[in-house]
Amino acid sequence: MAYLQSMPKSETIRLREKHVGAACQLFFRSSPLKIVRGVAQFMYDETGERYLDCINNVAHVGHCHPHVVEAGRNQMSLISTNNRYLHDELVILAERLVKTLPEPLSVCFFVNSGSEANDLALRLARIYTKNKDVVTLDHAYHGHLTSMIDVSPYKLNLPGGPEKPEWVHVAPVPDVYRGKYTYPNDSQSEGELAEMYAVEVDKICKEIVKKNGGVCAFIAESLQSCGGQIIPPDGYMKRVYEHVREASGVCIADEVQVGFGRVGTHMWAFETQDVVPDIVTIGKPMGNGHPVAAVITTPEIAKSFADTGVEYFNTYGGNPVSCAIANAVLDVIEEERLLERATRVGSHLLARCNDLKLKHRLIGDVRGRGLFVGVELVTDRETRTPATAEAKHIINRMREEKILISRDGPDSNVLKFKPPMVFTTQDADRLVDTLDRVLAELDGNRAPVTNLKLEVLVTPISKDMTQSDAIVNKNIQSIKSS
């Protein structure tokens, strides 16, 4: 049964290739999907084929949630205008957001996207501190605006990426598996690793103070997503925030990809590190696919912005339709207890992925919080060599099994699971069972791995590890770039 489409898929592809910039990302580029419908955690192509969506952290409460759709439709039938007129949806949304955040975060600015939110956050920080130098983390991504590309090593590090500005300072990402300091290579506890990574930020801050007088801001995703699903060691953010504030800087928590309860235990991921940022940026899941985002900051920072005398205006930011939709998203999060679901289903998914690690040597590390899980693939657990080709093969094989996942990280070897929050334990089981079969295709006849210590292999890997390479090379010969 064919679903809604106004033209054949071949014509859609032809027009896209003719009129849409080639730099625009397209999943499975060699054989793209034409998605015409979404319901909850599922998406449907033009033939009616159903795919389990394990990628989409934008359709936060599920694709086309009826309550969210109705809220947008109802408000659009009344009025959609800018926020220079009073309307209730905006102030209700602002109050609801503030109630989820710790004091003194209490002043909101509404924008259209996470990129815009981070751009405004940087502007607020510069006006408040009167400093320019920004500290960011390696492999971080904060948006596609020019100002955000400048502080996003995820883009700066690419061969065709722009040159890093002098005012941007890159600290090592606190990746305890393949970062600068790791366990057990450095024989340190988690707290000691947190301190070692925090000292790296302190060194940068001290250099900035010595040269330019003070830091403008430290900006970081509370959990790094595009950089490879990185979970900072406990205590890291607390120490970093201390160092940054000692250098007169403010701390920006980028919650664009990991906020609104994705971690399960808390509404905001920064809360898992027991810190209170000076500025918080939110977006993506806020509108369940509708463009709406926000910046929340302190009265002092907001006042310094107002004191410049330059009024802030955003044509679409905070319009009644966007705010009504965002309020509906909050309704669903509360009424369907999606934080509890993220905790329950996420714990199940993480446990099952760790079980896979006992069976498949290709899995080097499993990490995550709530419905934010990463599985890092390596060809050798001792050297932790990234299994990039294998990860690419697995993504394509999972698509053949009607399950959509993605890969990321600096070496594109980390499988990312960040599904809609309506994901179930049954969905998690289907995902892991299918991944188990796909991994088995790459394993050959190797025996299960059992000698593990704290999820890190401590005994040498046998030479049959190269068998994986041979199988992958055979399987991916027919797979074009996607």
Compact description:
By secondary structure, the chain is of the alpha/beta class. Helix content is 38%, strand content 16%. Keywords: Pyridoxal phosphate.
Description of the structure:
The protein is α/β, with parallel strands linked by helices and 482 residues long. The chain folds into 2 domains: 9-64 and 338-444, Aspartate Aminotransferase, domain 1; 66-336, Aspartate Aminotransferase, domain 2 (3-Layer(aba) Sandwich). It is 38% helix and 16% strand. The protein is built from 14 helices and 18 strands. It has helices at 9-19, 66-76, 88-99, 114-129, 146-149, 153-156, 190-212, 236-246, 299-306, 320-335, 338-359, 388-400, 425-443, 466-476, and strands at 35-39, 42-45, 50-53, 107-111, 134-137, 168-171, 217-221, 250-254, 279-282, 293-297, 363-369, 372-380, 385-386, 403-404, 406-408, 414-417, 452-453, 456-457. Strands 4-10-9-8-7-5-6 form a 7-stranded mixed β-sheet, with helices on both faces. Strands 11, 12, 13, 15 and 16 form a 5-stranded antiparallel β-sheet that branches. Helix 2 runs antiparallel to helix 10 (320-335) and helix 4 crosses helix 9 (299-306). It is globular. The two termini are 27 Å apart. Residues 445-482 have low confidence and may be disordered. Keywords: Pyridoxal phosphate. It comes from Galleria mellonella (Greater wax moth). InterPro entries: Aminotrans_3, Aminotrans_3_PPA_site, PyrdxlP-dep_Trfase, PyrdxlP-dep_Trfase_major, PyrdxlP-dep_Trfase_small.
